[in-house]
Amino acid sequence: AQSVxxxxxxxxxxEEAPVELRCNYxxxxxxxxxxxxxxxxxxxxxxxxxxxxxxxxxxINGFEAEFNKSQTSFHLxxxxxxxxxxxxxxxxxxxxxxxxxxxxxxxxxxxxxxxP
Amino acid sequence: DAGVTxxxxxxxxxxxxxxxxxxxxxxxxxTVSWYQQALGQxxxxxxxxxxEEERQRGNFPDRFSGHQFPNYSSELNVNALLLGDSALYxxxxxxxxxxxxxQFFGPGTRLTVL
Lengths: 116, 114
Prior knowledge:
The complex is a heterodimer of chains A (116) and B (114). Chain A has 116 residues and is mainly β. Chain A has no helices and twelve strands. Chain B has 114 residues and is an all-beta fold. At the A-B interface, strand 6, strand 10 and strand 11 of A face strand 4, strand 5, strand 9 and strand 10 of B.
C-alpha cells in the first residue's frame, strides 16, 4: 500500500528566507502527487499537483515542487516566504492505475512557522 | 459559487451516541469523498460516493457509513461513537472519478466525543 512520509514535522524560518518541505512516497509505480495547505480552522487548499510531464511543477502563492522518480520524492520549495505562509502543509499521493481512482493518501503534515 | 459546504461546524457527543455529518459539493461536482483528520495527523480516507453508490472505502469499521443523494450532497454517519472518533471530518468533492481532477475540500466538521 502507498504511504507518504513528510520528513519534518515543524519547519521554522525567517520571513523572506527560502524554504523546502520534504516529502517521500513509498512506491515507484506511476502516481499522482499533490501538495495541500491548511490554514487554521480551514479545509485543505491545493497548492500544486504533478500528473506527468515536466518534473518541476509551479503552483499558487509562489510555491513549486520537483518530482524525482528515482528518489520517490516530491519536495516543496519557495524562494522567499511571507508571514502569511504560516500554515500546515500536506503532501499526498493517489494511485489511479491500481484502482485507487482519486483516493488521496496524506502524510502527517509539516507545520511551517514564518517568523519576522 | 459557495464551494464545498459542511454542517455542522462543531459537534459534541458522548460515547455510544450516533452522529450525522452533512456535505454539499461544489457546483458541478458529482463525487464526494470523506476524510478523518485526527489532531496532529494528516487526513485519512474514509470512503467515496459517486452516482449514489459507495465506490471506494478506506480502512474504517462498519460503524462508519454514508449516503449520497440525487443532488450529489452526502452524509456521513458514525454509530456507537468512541473517544477515538474525535477528529475533524473533511468532505471533498470533484467532478467524476478521474484522479487528475482537483478535489475541493470543505472547512470540516469538528467532532468531539466525551
